[in-house]
Amino acid sequence: MEGHSSSITELAIVVVAALGCGLLMRYFRQPILLGYILAGAALGPSGFGFVENRDQVRLLAELGVLMLLFFIGMELHLRGLKAVWRIAILTTLFQIAVGVLAMSLLGLYLDWPLPLTVVLGFVVALSSTAVAIKMLEEIGEKGTRVANVTIGILIAQDLAVIPMMLVVSAFQSDAGGIGLEAIAKIGLSIAFLAVVLIFLGRGKRLRLPFAKTVGRNADLTPLAGLAFCFGAAALSGLLDLSASYGAFLAGLVIGNSTSRRVMMHYTAPIQSVLLMVFFLTIGLLMDLRYIWDNLGTVLFIVTFVAVLKTALNIVVIRAMGETWPRAFLSGVALAQLGEFSFILAALGLTAGVISPEEHRLLVAVTVLSLMGSPFWMEAARRLHRIALLGITSGRETLRLTVGPEAKALGRSGGRIGGWALWLARPLLGDKTVAPEAPAGQDAPAESKAPSTPVVRGRPLTPEPGGAEAD
Predict the structure, then answer these.
(1) Is residue 328 exposed (0-12), middle (13-18) or buried (19+ Cβ within 10 Å)?
(2) Are the beta carbons of 160 and 92 closer than 8 angstroms?
(3) How much is the pTM?
(4) Domains of the chain (ranges, CATH numbers)
């Protein structure tokens, strides 16, 4: 009885901490999932140690993953993807290819095994749906061309997660390699998914066999949704496929049926609770000591991934015919690693593809990437303002986005910041004061730097409070 009371106390602390951190993130206009991760990190073994037995919440977290895929399947707007399918698919394919290639090259330098480089390449290719949509809503881009392109790419990434999971699972059955049987299984699974997407993309709504009997019953409807989700996941597992594959297909079917709105309404609270548990588990799995001991490697990978993803997205989206400001804004919105990065890392750990230490590395990189969302949010606000001002030049867009930070670095960063500012003068488009040269050397000619950038008579500098005037 005493142990049972202790478990109840731990659960109460976890729920209250999750609520408090979620409210804190909402106050600062950040994704709530970051609050759940921080609550788990604070309560876990690396923090205050209130929760030491992670197995108590691991099963609920796995159910939360299935519900996440189930909901994403229901929320996919296949007709919306048709309008931007070329940009979405090509950008996603480039992201995956470049991500795997870049992590393979980095793996050669750091002596990583092949499975880890593949999993990390997949992780790098994915972006955070929650953070990207939050950015678009905060800066007033919801419903615009930028939002359509960004959401289209996110949908394509969600679809690509299923083949990624199948590939990661295939490493387990072939002891670190993918044989012909695994390749055939992955090919058939992708082909079946393509057939389902083509069939459902016709626009006709399906009528589920239990829809008329269940109706809008508040008790039976959520139970029917859970049964459909977990039943499809179990069937997929029996066929030696990923359980997530079945849950995603179940969501696709319901999302294109006449029961979509009713099912989403009644199952949303269950999904919210299970997802809270999932992200709490991610926080519990965070090893702060590991991050501190490997801070250089973790920060290097986070920076490398952020720069790589942003630059790649901008170049590809611009090559697809979008203007520079739109390409920059979409690239910034897609810069973070995503929720599915945690899922792929957990799948790799469960399948024995990656070690616990490698899993800690993936979790640390993903969490720090998500925690950098406030900086990307500020960049998105500036890019939104640039788009409103009608700027189309790529160089001007880049200058007005990073110019204030470069100038601030030159003013307050000492000699290193001064040299960085002077070397960046072609980017900033002006002449800057060179830093003091060492004794015996001549410094470059000085000239006065211009003040705050002004475009069409309007200053670009953010107003007090961080908000941009539209």
Answers:
(1) buried
(2) yes
(3) 0.70
(4) 58-279+288-383 (1.20.1530.20), 406-459 (no CATH)
Residue with tokens 């702060």: 288
CB atoms within 10 A of CB 198: 10
Q: Which residues of 354-363 are buried (b: 16+ CB within 10 A; e: fewer)?
A: beeebbbbbb
Cα separation of the two ends of the chain: 60
Q: Nearest CA to 21 among 34, 7, 5?
A: 34
Supply 294's token pair.
Answer: 């490997």
10 Å Cβ neighbour count for 458? Answer: 11
**CA atoms 392, 397, 398, 399: torsion sign:** positive
Decide if 337 contacts 123 (C-beta within 8 A). Answer: yes
Q: How many CB atoms lie within 10 A of CB 43?
A: 23
Listed as own residue / partner, the contacts of 180-188 with beta carbons closer than 8 Å and 24 or more positions apart are 185/240, 185/241
pLDDT-derived band at 177 (thresholds 50, 70, 90) equals low
- pLDDT tens per residue across span 156-171: 888 888 888 888 887 7
